[in-house]
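Internal tracking record. Fields below are filled automatically when a chain is submitted to the structure queue. Please do not edit lines marked as system-generated. If the sequence contains nonstandard residues, flag them in the REMARKS field before resubmitting.
Queue: standard
Priority: normal
Entity type: single polypeptide chain
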Amino acid sequence: MKIATPRLILREFVFDDWPAVLAYQSNPRYLHYYPWLDREPEQVQAFVQTFIDQQQAQPRIKFQLAVTLRQPDSPSCTPQEELNHTSVPRLIGNCGIRLEAAGAREADIGYELAPEHWGRGYATEAALAILDFGFRSLNLERIWAWCNAENRASSRVLEKLGMHLSHRIAQDQYFKERWWDTLAYEITRPEWEAAISK
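SYSTEM-GENERATED OUTPUT FOLLOWS
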């Protein structure tokens, strides 16, 4: 499975992606909103293997894709031409959608990006593509997401997707010797259809 956007290719994970994932997950800026203090190769290999295992599920209910930059030396390529490109674009994060069970009419999305690529709209671009996949291809009626309440950049991404804040969960997680709140966002099919028709 591959999805092309103007600047990105979202594709299936392969095991050899783990060093690139380790590189960004070891960044202190990335780790700030996670319980981990650091990341070891074995942990990240298991992390990537989880996504590979999900690809084999029948029926498949989880689609976590590697987010890669399109070829910088081929700016004139269309997204479809880029899908057929033979070289390997740089992995900068992941983005995906997860159903609880086959046939579910709702799902949640999640994404993460290497800190050096924050603030460039890549997370929004990837998540919009996944949102589109959820409503069009999976025929969902509602998609939701959550983020750390202090991660304002992540909540802005969700708002740019057209999602609205449904509720705040106080003191939802305890790590790094303190409590953290969680924000839950959602968007329904009618809301999404109204947004894309503008």
